[in-house]
């Protein structure tokens, strides 16, 4: 297994939380994509990738179409991507990705949770050395695919030589430079791969071990942060429970 697979597997459900909040978060992402590149998926690669993510999260087609239509409205809010970072309880590093139309409200909400759990918010970039920022693509594996040959081909597009394979779902997950997101997506589509997920993520490069009691407190902090509609994803460098056993 790749170094990131178990971490991503252990944190996926925590990151997205309940279905209603998931759809709200995806709707905001669609709004930004439509504003930037238009409402037609065939002409907007970012929107195409988001629709794949929506389908992966079982978001109904009507919800997706409604989010695209709403994004075209004149009264639609203008969302900004803002990341907050700092240390939570027990010295665990915390990244909070948000999409917000009111940064004053959002920073106050996020800071209140850091304070409540005796954490400290830092300045932007202060924890970048603890995480690798990656673009992540998941796609269906073709019959007879030679992965070594494919990875050699993808390296020219900023993809790492490490990948994860989910045999049950018959899917491959690759990791690459965030700046190469568009190039990687375009190449996968040109090669006829069915992309089932595309996103940006932060993967900790130094996992911190914690006790069961400490884990419970950190999990509570993450859950409280994810309750805010503006919060998209929360990342920590806490070692997944499976890896600690």
Automatic annotation (TrEMBL):
<dbReference type="Pfam" id="PF20772">
    <property type="entry name" value="TACO1_YebC_N"/>
</dbReference>
<dbReference type="InterPro" id="IPR002876">
    <property type="entry name" value="Transcrip_reg_TACO1-like"/>
</dbReference>
<dbReference type="InterPro" id="IPR017856">
    <property type="entry name" value="Integrase-like_N"/>
</dbReference>
<keyword id="KW-0805">Transcription regulation</keyword>
<keyword id="KW-0804">Transcription</keyword>
<dbReference type="GO" id="GO:0003677">
    <property type="term" value="F:DNA binding"/>
</dbReference>
<feature type="domain" description="TACO1/YebC-like N-terminal">
    <location>
        <begin position="4"/>
        <end position="74"/>
    </location>
</feature>
<dbReference type="Pfam" id="PF01709">
    <property type="entry name" value="Transcrip_reg"/>
</dbReference>
<feature type="domain" description="TACO1/YebC-like second and third">
    <location>
        <begin position="79"/>
        <end position="238"/>
    </location>
</feature>
<dbReference type="InterPro" id="IPR048300">
    <property type="entry name" value="TACO1_YebC-like_2nd/3rd_dom"/>
</dbReference>
<dbReference type="InterPro" id="IPR026564">
    <property type="entry name" value="Transcrip_reg_TACO1-like_dom3"/>
</dbReference>
<comment type="similarity">
    <text>Belongs to the TACO1 family.</text>
</comment>
<dbReference type="InterPro" id="IPR049083">
    <property type="entry name" value="TACO1_YebC_N"/>
</dbReference>
<protein>
    <recommendedName>
        <fullName>Probable transcriptional regulatory protein JHU38_01380</fullName>
    </recommendedName>
</protein>
<keyword id="KW-0238">DNA-binding</keyword>
<keyword id="KW-0963">Cytoplasm</keyword>
<dbReference type="InterPro" id="IPR029072">
    <property type="entry name" value="YebC-like"/>
</dbReference>
């Amino acid at each position: 297994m790749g170094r990131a697979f178990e971490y991503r597997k252990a944190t996926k459900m925590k990151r997205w939380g309940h279905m209603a909040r998931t759809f709200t978060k995806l709707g905001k992402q669609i709004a930004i994509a439509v504003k930037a590149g238009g409402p037609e998926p065939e002409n907007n690669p970012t929107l195409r990738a988001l629709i794949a993510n929506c389908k992966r999260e079982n978001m109904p087609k009507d919800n997706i179409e409604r989010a695209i239509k709403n994004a075209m409205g004149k009264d639609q809010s203008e969302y900004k991507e803002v990341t907050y970072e700092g240390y939570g309880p027990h010295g665990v590093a915390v990244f909070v990705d948000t999409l917000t139309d009111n940064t004053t409200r959002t920073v106050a909400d996020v800071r209140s949770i850091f304070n409540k759990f005796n954490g400290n918010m830092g300045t932007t970039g202060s924890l970048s050395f603890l995480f690798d920022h990656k673009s992540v693509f998941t796609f269906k594996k073709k019959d007879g695919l030679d992965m070594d040959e494919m990875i050699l081909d993808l390296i020219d597009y900023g993809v790492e030589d490490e990948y994860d394979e989910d045999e049950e779902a018959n899917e491959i997950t690759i990791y690459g430079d965030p700046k190469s997101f568009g190039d990687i997506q375009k190449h996968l589509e040109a090669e006829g791969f069915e992309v089932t997920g595309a996103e940006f993520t932060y993967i900790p490069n130094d996992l911190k071990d914690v006790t069961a009691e400490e884990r419970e407190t950190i999990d509570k902090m993450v859950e409280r942060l994810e309750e805010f509609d503006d919060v998209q994803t929360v990342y920590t460098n806490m070692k997944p429970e499976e890896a600690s056993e």
